[in-house]
Amino acid sequence: MKKVLLTFFSLTLVLVLAACGNNNTTNNAANSAATNAPAAEATTEPAAEPITLVIGASPVPHAEILKAIAPLLEAQGIKLEIKEFTDYIQPNVQLAEKQLDANFFQHQPYLDQQNKDNGTDLVAVTAVHVEPFGAYSKKIKDIAELADGAKVAIPNDATNGGRALILLAKNGLIKLKDDTNITSTKADITENKKNLDIIELDAAMLPRQLDEVDLALINTNYALEAGLVPTKDALFIEGTDSPYANILVARPDNKDSDAIQKLAAALNSPEAKAFIEEKYQGSIIPAF
């Protein structure tokens, strides 16, 4: 009987040990499979490509302002490509032809006249700054010294020419039919007691003509480029209430795009205002 029981317990022990061995083998195999299994690939969204806006601008101050606010836009995934122009014609031509996404160099009356003359429909997006228009001379220190028959140069484009005539009228040098009409021409002069010889020249040429004329009425951007300081060098200048704010301009098809609206917001930002006030010391005034 003892032999039978001993045999039974021996068989039972063998079966238990075999079962334990099989469980360990199974667990080791599972662990090995888990260890050797390839790691799941991480799923990441590709980084969005930055949007590039090509903006036409006068070198001073427009391109300078754009460069100052460029980091604000880069942080939002927008890169500015600034194309500088020294004339007032091509920035609108190239914007209409979609070579530019926007431009920044002009005021609303000039844009209105250009749209009318050229059959375009460019639109203002936002006002940025005012450039008070001034009169400069290398020959006299005070307007009272302006002699009879003096040569006075003004811009030859319709709106800036009218603006110059209005400024001459407001300073008592001439009288106009309507001294609020931005499109006034020399034909609208009703009184010219000093017999001023008013010459019309391309706006960009005016600073270079200061040696040749007695007085020149110069757009502030060209005055700054020539090293003139409007608040110090102008014999007289428009007030800070000038209605000729310089504007960001786009086309009807892109004016409401996210990128253009972000550019407009950056141009009206506290950072832009601080830059304009610090850099130009009153020669240029924020319009926002």
Structural overview:
- Strand 1, helix 2 (59-74) and strand 2 form a beta-alpha-beta unit.
- This protein has a six-stranded mixed β-sheet with strand order 2-1-3-12-4-13, sandwiched between helices.
- It is globular.
- It is 39% helix and 21% strand.
- The protein has helices spanning 2-36, 59-74, 90-96, 108-118, 158-170, 220-225, 230-233, 258-267, 270-280; strands at 51-57, 78-84, 102-107, 123-130, 134-136, 151-155, 175-176, 189-191, 197-201, 215-218, 236-237, 245-250, 285-286.
- Helix 2 (59-74) packs across helix 8.
- Residues 1-43 have low confidence and may be disordered.
- With 288 residues, it is an alpha/beta fold.
Sequence of strands across the biggest β-sheet: 2-1-3-12-4-13
What is the averaged pLDDT score? Answer: 87
Give the C-alpha Rg.
37 Å
How would you classify the quaternary structure?
single chain
* Main sheet characteristics: 6 strands, mixed
Q: Helicity level, as a percent range?
A: 25-40%
What would you call the structural class? alpha/beta
The parts where pLDDT drops under 50 for at least 5 residues are 1-43
